[in-house]
Design brief:
Helices cover 38% and strands 19% of the residues. By secondary structure, it is α/β, with parallel strands linked by helices. Strand 1 and strand 2 form a beta hairpin. It is globular. The N and C termini lie far apart (41 Å).
Length: 156
């Protein structure tokens, strides 16, 4: 059974995945909480399709793999706080917990285009869904991903 002490290990995995798209370092890992098994991973492919965020890629890969687990037992780790679209998808998928590194506010402050609604707020506005939102895991490491990308492509 995963605990808070396991969060950095899986966030490190998401950070490594972000290397697939260093200019858009949004990456996600879905883990089965009871076993600690990674059931899916994904990264940003929005240059191919505007809705193909890292979380969406991971959810699609989980579904396509046909992994038979109770969605409420899944934890989605992501380098950045899910945008409202992704948090909505996480809720609809039934994923029980989301853990993120960089916050939407940080991304906005550093020039990333974001919708100013937190993942916790999206979840609060959907009381019929259950999802625990945990932020700030390996935050400085995740922040550095986005700062590096912003320096490489100013004015994106």
């Amino acid at each position: 059974m995963l605990t808070h002490e396991d969060h950095p290990r899986f966030m490190q995995h998401a950070i490594r995945l972000a290397a697939n798209v260093p200019h858009l370092p949004f990456a996600a890992v879905i883990v089965h909480q009871p076993t600690g098994e990674i059931v899916a991973e994904g990264w940003n492919k929005s240059e191919q399709h505007p809705l193909w965020h890292g979380e969406i890629d991971a959810i699609n890969r989980w579904v396509a793999a046909g992994v038979a687990v109770e969605p409420g037992q899944l934890v989605l780790y992501t380098t950045a706080e899910p945008c409202p679209m992704c948090q909505g998808a996480i809720l609809w998928a039934g994923i029980g917990q989301v853990v993120f590194g960089s916050s939407i506010r940080f991304l906005q402050h550093t020039g990333w285009r974001q919708i100013d609604i937190s993942a916790a707020e999206v979840t609060r506005c959907a009381p019929e869904f259950h999802c625990v939102v945990v932020g700030g895991v390996l935050e400085s490491e995740c922040n550095e991903l986005f700062l590096t990308a912003a320096r490489a492509a100013p004015g994106r």
